Amino acid sequence: MAEVVIEGLTKRFGAVTAVDGVSLTVGSGELVSLLGPSGCGKTTTLNCLAGLERPDAGRILAAGEILADADRRFFLPPERRQLGMVFQSYALWPHMTVADNIAYGLRTRRIPEAQIRQQTDEVLRLVQLEGMGNRYPHQLSGGQQQRVALARALVYQPRILLLDEPLSNLDAKLREHARVWLRDLQQRLRITAVYVTHDQVEALSLSDRIAVMSAGRIVQLGRPREIYERPADRFVADFIGQASFLPGEVIARDGHMVRIRLAAGHELRVQSSQAWTPGQAVLVVVRPERVVLADGPTDNVLTGAVRSHVYLGARHQYLVDIGGLEVRLEAAEELPPGPVRLHIPPHAATLLPHGSA
Amino acid sequence: MLEAARLPAAAGGRTDVPLQWGIGLLAVVLVLFPLAPILYQSVLARPLYEPERVLSLQNYARILASPEFHAAALNSLAVAGATTVLAVGLGTLLAVLVMRTDLPLRGLLGSLIMSPLYISPLVLAFAWVTMFGPQGYVTIALRAATGADPWNLYSLPGIVAVSIFYYAPFAYLNAVASLSLSDPTVEDAARVAGAPPLRVLATVTLPLLRPAVTYSALLVGISSLELLSIPLILGTPSGIDTLATLLVKFGVMGGRPDYGGVAAVAVILLAVVTLLILVQERLIGAGQRFVTVRGKAVAPRPLAIGPLRLVALALGLAYVLLGVVVPLGGILLRSVVGFLSPLANPLDSLTLEHYALVFQTESYRRSITNSLLIAGVGGGAGILFMTLLALVAYRSELGWRRILGFVALYPRAIPGLIVGIGFLWSFLLIPRLGGLRNTVLALAIAFIMRYIPYGFSVIAPTLTRVSRELDSAARVCGDDWAGTVRRVLLPVLRPAILTGWVLLFITFLKEYSSAVFLFARGSEVMGTTMLELWRQGDMGPVSVLAALQVLLILAVTLVMRYAFGVRFHG
User: Fold this and answer.
1) Rounded-to-integer distance, Cα B36 and Cα B423, Å
2) Distance between CA atoms of B451 and B381, rounded to whole angstroms?
3) What is the 3-state secondary structure (H, E, C) of B257-325?
4) 3-state per-residue secondary structure call for B511-548
5) Interchain pair B472, A50: CB under 8 A
6) What do you get for the CA distance between the two ends of chain B, in Å?
7) How far is residue B163 CA from its own chain's centroid?
8) Closest CA to B200 of B301, B310, B105
9) B472 → closest Cβ in A91, A149, A156
10) Which end of chain A has less neighbouring CB within 10 Å, N or C?
């Protein structure tokens, strides 16, 4: 199968640099998500891969073949790249039937009609839309349209599948189902895929690896668990999931255990493999679900008062005021009234240098 | 299935770049084709077909010093100014009355007010002459009753009067579009806040119309400045010239055409109109160039204006009767009677002799078939070219495609007469193209060039609503640009292309001003034949051609509306 290599990709629109020196390798059969807020350059990166945008700098290779090389002013147009792409709006052609939509890529390749029919039927079966070939796109539900778009992208056996927020037009329940189905299909076909999304849950649950993007750059690249549990900076921690950010100062370091004094005066011990020096300003990052109510332990305990409470059905969300610092907390049960004691396990927090972002 | 051998990549795409360059260059050449020789001639001392070419500014000096030019310029400004104020005022007022008040017979009045949109100003001028001219039916009736001439249509006020009825529908249409897009609940809010209906109209409805009024004023101002037919028909008999009629006088009517004078006047007119268009762009903003007109599901509550509605009804009926029903009815009637006068019962002289004359005279008959040919085939070719141009301008990788949006809209600044003069002179300058001269093809090309902005403005807004992902998807699927255009974009744009074709058909059928200089024996069109017949004083056949033009346009509009659902507005 095909490996994708992006080297130093840069794309400018006038004075705005949409993609700023992005480098990324997607292994054969791997699914990598480009995750970030709108305007971070993820869709532009995907469009450069597809050949819909011409890069200003950098190279793109697929399966060892150069698709674009700005230095040599080489640029392969999209129709010569052998890619499949699913668009956010699905982009089904309204004047063609489902079968004609799917067969489009085969007809441009001048495949005999008999083979076209056979392959169209096969791919319709693959996306569980047997017998729907004669319908028009507007006669299908959103979920069905999404699967036609996928079938259209897969039918000519592209080397790489590009997906641009393919699930964002589905409603919440359907999206969850489609996510599982899509991941399953990608794994069965073992096709290399690049997936653009702004939805962190989607990225965490679908991807082999995630590239978190901000302002045209990749700020962190890693497996979903790594991204969530060891965010590289405040932006990543803030964008993916929720977190409390507690400013403090390193007092001492003992192997992998770092002692921190928080701005509020409390002391915390945090596990970290990085080399911190005493006196360094840091941020302690804690996920709300990792904070526990301190019944037993006396170590790493913060005492404070509940500032606000939101009832979420299955869980309760609290904002606790610890000497002027805010700690988010998610608990299965309602807290008793009065002061609360919170325990932050040393391995549950991450340290970031303060002022980094 | 994916175990099958990988399919080959699509070949193709080799034609894309030459195709895009070809379409883009064709547009640029087409627009420059008539402009270049006029600019060149304006600084030549002698006619441009003469071998000896000396650069000089004497044409400008001569024209700027000539009292004839001063008078014509002043007349043009006076007509354009008065027409703009009165037509925009009247059109906007009628729109508010029809759209927002409980005026009786609103629907009927609405469609009658707009009907002059489908009529050539040439036909409208002839219709007015038939009824309100010095020998017109109404004029004679009033003269017989009072013993004095009630008015003189062959005067500046006469020109302005007819122009008002020609231009008011444009202002009406813009105001209606703006009113139907604006949220009627803002008026409800004013009512709830305690404002009586007239106060709501004055304090909420009218101020919200300001952008539409500005747009209309510039549109009408620019167009009435260059309008030829109404001043030509009504001004010539009493020696009133405007810049447009001056061009005709210098160019065709005199024994020897004054090339330098024509070019200098044309360049001056071109400069003024270009300047006004730049002002329009500044005021309205580039995005407003395509004012999309679409209805809204919310039906506004008409404001009850009490007894005033009867005054308003009187105004509306007077307008429609005077400006539309009487003149158009008159010219239709004129075509089937020997002579039209209140002193005799027209039914006594019922005759088809004018129709027989038109259909039996080869050149008259040919002008009808030529017009239909240019409108049908030329309009079809035109809309295809304009669609491809819009596709290159908005959906291609051509490096200089952004210039094309400007190129496509620039012909708005070129008055029709100047288009005709320019094409004629280009044919004179380039002997190889001499074969095109005096052919229907030359007229069709000139008409297409002049109306690129029309077709472009129908296609471009639709195209911007067609998601770019539709063509991206085709490209990623392996199709090149040309294939994507043919298989995806043209089919998706089909309704807009059909609408554009009908619009061009009607426009080409009405067109005469760019043909005045360009037509020859064999390439007559209805407009030029009407002008010829009018010069001979033969109003019978003129009204036949006018009636045929009106009926043809009416038929096409109705067929397209009911058979294909094509509508231009509302």
Assistant:
1) 10
2) 12
3) CCHHHHHHHHHHHHHHHHHHHHHHHHHHCHHHHCCCCCCCCCCCCCECCCCHHHHHHHHHHHHHHHHHH
4) CCCCCCCCCCCCCCCHHHHHHHHHHCCCHHHHHHHHHH
5) yes
6) 52
7) 13
8) B301
9) A91
10) N
Dihedrals phi, psi of A196, to nearest 5 degrees: -100, 130
Non-local CB neighbours of A256 within 8 Å, separated by 6+ positions = A271, A272, A273
Q: Under 8 Å CB-to-CB from B372, ≥6 apart: which residues?
A: B509, B552
Residues of A with CB under 8 A from a CB of B: 47, 50-52, 54, 77-85, 87-95, 104-106, 108-111, 119, 122-123, 126, 149, 152-154, 156-157, 159, 162, 189, 191
Six token digits for residue A21: 């020196």
- Residue in chain B lying closest to A89 (CA): B469
Q: Do A78 and B7 touch (CB under 8 A)?
A: no
Q: DSSP letter for B436, please.
A: G
- Measure in Å the smallest separation between the Cα of B488 and chain A Cα atoms: 7
Burial bucket for residue B67 (CB in 10 Å: 0-12, 13-18, 19+): exposed
Residues contacting A303, CB < 8 A, separation 6+: A322, A339, A340, A341, A342
Q: Which of B380, B368, B398 is nearest to B529 (CA)?
A: B368
Tokens at residue B279, please? 């002002």
d(CA A331, CA A232): 26
Q: How far away is chain B from the Cα of A19, in angstroms, using its nearest Cα? A: 20
Question: What's the average model confidence in pLDDT over B168-179?
Answer: 88
Q: Can you spell out the DSSP letters for B161-209?
A: HHHHHHHHHHHHHHHHHHHHHS-THHHHHHHHTT--HHHHIIIIIHHHT
Packing angle, helices B67-100 and B156-181, rounded to 10: 40
Alpha carbon distance A36, A113 (integer Å): 42
B278 burial level (CB within 10 Å; 0-12, 13-18, 19+): exposed
pLDDT number for residue B298: 52
pLDDT in tens, A119-134: 999 999 999 999 999 9
Structure confidence at residue B461 as a pLDDT band (50, 70, 90): confident
d(CA A342, CA B13): 65
The nearest alpha carbon in chain A to B14 belongs to A77
| Cα–Cα distance measured from residue B501 to residue B490, given in angstroms and rounded to the nearest whole number | 14
How many other C-beta atoms are found inside a 10 Å radius of the C-beta of residue A74?
11
For residue A304, the SS3 value is strand
- b/e for B140-158, b at 16 or more Cβ within 10 A? bebeeeeeeeeeebbebeb
How far CA B300 is from CA of A88, A93, B181, B313, in Å, comes to 36, 36, 11, 20
Residue B217 token pair: 């004023």
Q: At what angle do helices B259-284 and B16-42 cross, to 10 degrees?
A: 120
Contact B300, B184 (CB under 8 A): yes
- φ, ψ for residue A158, nearest 5 deg: -70, 160
Please tell me which of the candidates A77, A110, A126 has its beta carbon nearest to residue B1. A126
* Whole-number pLDDT of residue B46: 86
B117-134 average pLDDT score: 91
Chain B hits for A94, CB-CB cut-off 8 Å, are 492
Cβ–Cβ < 8 Å for B506, B457: no
Please report which helix (H) or strand (E) contains residue A35, including its range.
strand A31-35
Reading the block at residue B56, the tokens are 């000089």
pLDDT tens per residue across span B406-436? 899 899 889 999 999 999 999 988 888 878 8
Question: What one-character-per-residue DSSP string does B368-389 give?
Answer: HHHHHHIIIIIHHHHHHHHHHH
Which of A50, A109, A159 is opposite residue B10, by nearest beta carbon? A109
Residue with the larger pLDDT of the pair A180 and B14: A180
